[in-house]
Amino acid sequence: MQIMVVLRLTLTESTIILIEYGYKDSADVMLWAVKMTIINT
Predict the structure, then answer these.
(1) 3-state DSSP call for residue 25?
(2) Less CB within 10 Å around the terminal CB: N or C of the chain?
């Protein structure tokens, strides 16, 4: 349970960072988040 919470926080923070760095295409962000979730699962 705790690992999933940390994972979600990490994904959220990383997505925010991506958006801040100019990756405003939400599809790209979502694809990246899915890839990271698969890798970390």
Answers:
(1) coil
(2) N
| pTM for this model (two decimals) | 0.34
The residue that leads in pLDDT, 35 or 29, is 35
* Residue 24 phi, psi (nearest 5): -90, -5
| Measured CA distances, 20 to 2, 4, 25, 41 (Å) | 27, 24, 12, 26
Neighbouring C-beta atoms of residue 21, cutoff 10 Å: 8
Residue 30 has, within 13 A of its CA and on its CB side, a CA count of 3
